[in-house]
Amino acid sequence: MADPSLDPGTGDDTSGVRIDRGSTTGMPRWVKVFSIVALAVVLLFVILLLTGGGHGPDRHRTEGSHEAGAPADAEQAVRTVEVTTLDAMIFEPTSISISTGETVTSEVTNAGQAVGEFTLGNAAMQQEHAEAMGHMPAGMAHDMPNSITLQPGETKELTWRFGDAATLEYACHQPDHYQAGMRGEITIA
Q1: Cα 107–chain centre separation
Q2: pTM for the full model?
Q3: How many domains does the chain have?
């Protein structure tokens, strides 16, 4: 007959004293640690998405951006303005006049050999876009409601309903383009 003081599972002497050696079943410690770290990374990612921290749609909402206006459907445009980007780091034309509340389609053609960009906005929006572009690879396409990226020879349209009287810019934020003067002025009156 078996000794009743021995634990049948381990063969240990139990003689009335219960020793808790922890659970021998369940997940190994490394799996638990890995799960906690993975959960922390996911939570951090969700927090970044909810608080900004990136370059993407609706990330160009800065103080005073309502002055700049908002995207519009092409059917709402009352006119089309042709704009050309050139390798000489300029836009043609260099300035555009628009009426308050007017909806305009900008038909932008990249006549150069380098990737170009056409971004509408006030000074704060342009600065924010420039900072975000500093974290992106050169030439990365990232069309936004107020911005389009153009490959050499490409033509795209951006339709915009302009807001209050203001002076805005259209600019290119590809590496070193803005600093070289690749921008134009929009006068809304």
Answers
A1: 23
A2: 0.62
A3: 1
